[in-house]
Amino acid sequence: ALELMDFRNALEQFQKLVEKMITQKTKESSGLYAKGDDEIDYDTFYTTTQTLFGPAVKDHNVQTFFRKIMSNVDERPEWLEIFGCFIGESDGSLSQLKESMVFLVSGKQQITHSVVKRKDVIKGLVKVPLLDFTLTASQKGVLTVFNNQRKSFFSYSFYFHQDTAWITGCDFLPHLKYVVAVTESTVIVWDYKSKESKNNGFVIKPMKNCLLCVCTVTTSDDLPKDSILMGDDKGYVYLLTLTSDDFIMKQYKAEKESQFKFLDSESLNMVKRKLHDDWVGKVKYIPALKRFGSCSTDSINSFVLDDIKRLEDNLPVKEFSVPRGVNAFTYCGKAKVIVTGG
Length: 342
Hints:
It comes from Climacteris rufus. By secondary structure, this protein is α+β, with helices and mostly antiparallel strands.
């Protein structure tokens, strides 16, 4: 209780310090401030902050906070920013962190491993809690699994190269234990566990339209199959079901020296339905509702939420309209609401 009272008092003093800095900066900008003994420069701010909070604040966070205030007094940073958010190797052990008089933040580890080259960007990032790893996909074709075992990251990368195709999204197939990604013209399935570096990738084609997003349909059964949802630039939503047999029986030979095994999309269990009149920006299966959602920049058919069986029939779907469409959506199970962003 005494520590809490001391912290509240320190916080009040810190907030007063920040207000004085803002007043000083505002007067300086208008030419009304005359320098004197009460001037707050960086050294004064640093010394006062360290006195108030002690080792709970780090030098670089103090510097960043000060610079943020001085650069824009109208956008005041939150007080908790003074304590930072990343725990680096030099910040001490977890036991030392727990002794902080401020609060306990979850330790975050920054991945320094370079998974993409210059002029490449990450287009998809998926957390797989069951296997404790993170999956990333870069625009130019680098799929990487970061395994968090033994408290350090191990990465396994797969490079897909096709001159004109960019990766637009990725996800994980929990039953088949494969990574799936979509490009503008194909579907990639990667067996990240395979020891064969040149023959562990499958490419499904042809796909007539440009694929823009992908997600896994999560189910509770243990059958050796997975279903994925995909959206394209013509407003179609696809449901593709893959089984272990698809990767054994339906292969056809690729060109020599190719590291990919090609699968004919016409031979697979895939259905599609046009739900929007513009690009499909996101598809997602919501297990709690046993429904899928898809959104588009289409102003009329902006958001669809319905049973996945609607993709296989022509029955009406539950949808609503938003001017200029919907770019993103998410579901909150606790509040039982769906939030959309246009």
